[in-house]
Amino acid sequence: MDCYTLNTKIFSGVKEWIFRVTGFLCSLLSSGLGIILANSKYWRLWEFDNDVVQLVYIGLWEAYYHWEFNFPDTETITLVHSPINSTWTISPEFQCARSLILLAMLIKPVVVIFSSAAIRVSIIKAAVSEIQIVCYKCSVLILILSSLCTIISVTWNHVVDLYGETTLDFPPTFPVKKEALIKKHSTHVFPMGLVTTILSLFCVIMFLYEIKSLKCQRKLDAQQASKQDDRSIDECAGVCKMCQETPRQGFLHPTVLL
Predict the structure, then answer these.
(1) Which tens digits make up the pLDDT trace of 65-79?
(2) Cross-strand partners of 69
């Protein structure tokens, strides 16, 4: 029975470490994907009927296009960067995507810090489960917020760009006009946003399991401590009772001695 209990505890500890490390790695991967998503130049891909610029890659912060220079002997193609600033007509969904993705990118590293701190507490085996629970609860709240920011930004941008009317427009100095637009291409931004959100929600499940496990462990420790206290009280009471009965057993009446 003792061997079975020991094996059960070992298996439970290994399972908890699997969930703990998996949640940390998924949060790290989700944070990395968020950074890649924020710096991607494929938020929108527009094709134009133009001899100089055929494709324009629109990121959140810069637009990119290949400019062909025809010389008498050679043909040169150069990648040009154009910052998206106040000279552009920025649409509401594009501005929202900027703000939400930037918020998600900035707060996700906090999850990595909190989960690392919780793992550190587990490694040193400190009896401070409250600190771990607080770290995991903060991580869960941040991951839910970042997931909402990510999914709203990529979904709104995708729907408006391909199926709606967007007011995003180039500045007057841009080499191609929006009137020459002939096709809008779907990109990997929307699937990547979904994957990032799924990873964040998977981390939430892992951390919620950890919170539940820590609370159960804390309850078991409290029950064991209470049983030990009760046992100590019973042992003390038994010792005191023996101390009271011992003199009575050793006492002899004076008439017996005579």
Answers:
(1) 988 777 666 777 788
(2) 76
Give the span between the Cα atoms of 136 and 110, in whole angstroms. Answer: 11
Phi, psi of 136 (to 5 degrees): -70, -35
Contact 152, 96 (CB under 8 A): yes
Distance between CA atoms of 149 and 197, rounded to whole angstroms? 9
Taken in order of first residue, the domains within the chain and their CATH numbers are: 2-40+88-172+187-212 (1.20.140)
Task: Read off the pTM.
Answer: 0.78
- Measured between alpha carbons, how far is 145 from 167 in angstroms, rounded to an integer? 28
Q: Do the Cβ atoms of 59 and 43 come closer than 8 Å? A: yes
Read off the amino acid at residue 159. Answer: V
Task: Take residue 150 and report the two structure tokens written for it.
Answer: 């990510």
34-61 confidence digits (pLDDT tens) = 999 999 999 999 999 988 889 999 999 9
Q: What tokens were used for 120?
A: 């550190």
Do residues 29 and 42 touch, judged by C-beta distance below 8 A?
Answer: no
The answer to whether the beta carbons of residues 65 and 57 sit under 8 Å apart is: yes
